[in-house]
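User: Earlier you gave me the apo prediction for this protein. Now I'd like the version with zinc ion bound, so I can compare the two side by side. Same sequence as before, with the ligand SMILES added.
Assistant: Got it. Here's the input I'm using:
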Amino acid sequence: MDAPVKPKPVPVVNPWARPFWEGTKQGKLLYQKCKDCGTNVFYPRIACISCFSDNLEWVESSGKGTVYTYTVVKSNSPTAFLPDLPYVIAIVKLEEDGVQMLSNIVGCDPDEVRCDMPVEVTFEKLNDEFVLPKFKPFRS
Ligand SMILES: [Zn+2]
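And here is the structure of the complex with zinc ion:
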């Protein structure tokens, strides 16, 4: 007997992370930059990770980067993700210094994914409230 498919979990959004999720809905991948020392900040925070200033601004990423590391999930996923098997969970290192995102690699066979593979962002609608940034192979 198949287990009923549950809906996928949705992000829990802190007030200071809201601009990130508003950005993905508009097809923009945003991260924070410290206006005092220039450090890039991701995930969203209330203060700079380098100088602790709260003078942060939102800037748009190029959406391009490389696979830093990844794993292919082939079994034992949470029930909501069973229809997606096999799928790739990856840390993507974006072009912008110090910005890394935990996401999925989509748009290719999971066996094609490699470390240092060039990727670019693509946006997947989860529901009316959330659009998730995912990454696909970048073919120039
Ligand atoms: Zn700073």
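For your comparison, keep in mind: The helical segments are 18-25.
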